[in-house]
Design brief:
Layout lengths: L2 H20 L14 E7 L2 H18 L2 E7 L1 H14 L6 E5 L2 H7 L7 H6 L10 H6 L10 E6 L1 E6 H7 L9 H11 L20 H10 L16 H17 L9 H9 L5 E5 L3 H4 L10 E5 L12 E7 L6 H11 L2 H11 L16 H7 L2 H10 L25 H16 L5 H15 L7
Parallel strand pairs: 1-2, 1-3
Antiparallel strand pairs: 3-8, 4-8, 5-6, 5-7
């Protein structure tokens, strides 16, 4: 590609970054908190919705600290969070950061380190947190910058009742080819799609599961010299497999459906299989779910690698510019505590307890009994994922399973996810999507190649 074209693509990527930092039309954030209140910015997932419901009764009643929540869909909360932390505006004291943001935000001085709070707060029991999550929330300077609200791996959920009806069985450690064959056989049974998968654009939406398929099929975004590899045979095979699978045996309008929409479809009984985050199983087994007690769970499907599951956490971090850090820590200490898990268990049932973050939850008989078939698979997925430093086949210059641990990925990943969503929608071929994505990926890391 000519250098002038690379420059134009880089400028386009910078323009998208500028939109993110300017807010992309988001409503104005609330004024900063005070000694008697804090502002929390979070993704609006079901566990966060539960947290909001219980805050006044358990946290505010105990501490006197009011909590003002801003809960947004994932793509929206990332835009708001990037703008807020880049400016160090101080409107939000706490935000739901992830294993992707922590290394970047901490290096740029946007997060307050938590080590002194952890040392002083003996009741928090830091040793109870899964070590792999602690590592993912530790900065390059060795300091801890966030505490996990919940952790997750990925697994395959399937309808045992529909499998019995069709005389099918799920392998103990399924490959993607086996899953595709099962999806073809069971598609349409009782009106259910063969498999439901994320298709909505967003680096934390469709690209998260797609990256695990790319990894296990032997693909990588870059070689060790930072040359883009999105048109390599392995990358093409993985993305074509995913797109073909969801187009042929997936849910209708998949390109408009993220993890929450797919969850709703599965819970309503419209999917025979579903590959997604372990944390969402609590909604599958909740009262009111049409498939409660009818679902089996298997490891994340693989191909050339032995493991393919992702490792993720939504965690609580304190903005460096916050004037209410002590109150913010009190909130984090409660929201990520064993006590909070018990409060959820008592109020909403143990299946709703935020999981995947603490060892003690999995030795709790009440949780074991409530979680039934899926808690063992959830534990395995959260503690034995693919290796974030080596998740695929062959060396790569970046870390991460469902994402790339480089600052440029937030913009690049979203742009590539839009190209793949267009292929899922039938608006362009996979080859066209990847050729466009290859150009974007090559331009995004030009500085790493010294250009």
């Amino acid at each position: 590609m000519k250098r002038s074209r690379l420059a134009r693509l880089a400028v386009a990527a910078m323009a998208v970054t500028g939109l993110i930092l300017s807010g992309c039309g988001d409503a104005d954030p609330p004024p900063g908190g005070s000694n008697g209140s804090i502002n929390v910015l979070s993704v609006g997932n079901p566990p966060m919705q539960d947290l909001k419901k219980l805050t006044k009764k358990y946290f505010t009643a105990e501490t006197g600290i009011e909590v003002n929540y801003t809960l947004l869909p994932e793509n929206d909360v990332r835009r708001r969070m990037d703008r807020e932390f880049a400016r160090q505006a101080g409107h939000y004291d706490v935000a739901s950061v992830s294993a992707y943001e922590v290394p970047i935000y901490s290096e740029r001085g946007w997060l307050a380190p938590l080590d002194s709070y952890v040392k002083a707060d003996k009741d928090f029991d830091q040793d109870d947190i899964f070590p792999n999550l602690v590592e993912s929330l530790t900065g390059a300077d060795g300091r801890l910058y966030a505490q996990p609200f919940y952790g997750e791996g990925s697994f395959l959920a399937y309808r045992k009742d529909l499998f019995r009806k069709e005389g099918l069985s799920m392998p103990a450690n399924p490959t993607w080819e086996q899953v595709a064959s099962l999806a073809a056989e069971i598609d349409g049974t009782d009106g259910a799609s063969g498999i439901c998968l994320r298709g909505l654009p967003g680096w934390g939406q469709n690209l998260t599961p797609i990256n695990t398929v790319v990894n296990t099929f032997g693909g990588a975004w870059y070689d060790m010299e930072w040359n883009a590899r999105l048109t390599s045979p392995e990358f093409r095979k993985a993305v074509r497999f995913y797109v073909d699978l969801v187009r042929e045996h997936g849910q209708p309008t998949a390109h408009r459906m993220g993890f929450l929409e797919v969850l709703d479809a599965f819970v309503a009984g419209r999917c025979a299989m579903w590959y997604d985050a372990t944390v969402l199983a609590s909604s599958v087994e909740a009262d009111g779910s049409a498939v409660k007690g009818k679902v089996g769970y298997a490891p994340a499907p693989h191909d050339r690698t032995e493991k393919a599951g992702w490792l993720w956490t939504w965690a609580w971090g304190i903005q460096k510019a916050s004037d209410n850090k002590d109150a913010a820590w009190k909130f984090i200490s409660w929201a990520s505590s064993k006590d909070y898990q018990k409060q959820v268990g008592q109020e909403m049932g143990w299946t709703a307890a935020p999981a995947g973050n603490r060892k003690s939850l999995y030795s709790n008989p009440a949780y074991q009994q409530a979680a039934g078939d899926w808690y063992r698979q959830e534990y395995t997925a959260a503690t034995d994922s693919a290796d974030p430093k080596n998740p695929g086949v062959g060396p790569r210059p970046y870390t991460g399973i469902g994402f790339l641990g480089i600052p440029e990925f937030a913009v690049l990943g979203t742009a590539v996810s839009e190209q793949i969503a267009a292929a899922i929608a039938g608006q362009q071929s996979v080859d066209t999507a990847l050729e466009k994505s290859q150009d974007l990926a090559q331009a995004a890391v030009a500085k790493y190649r010294g250009e």
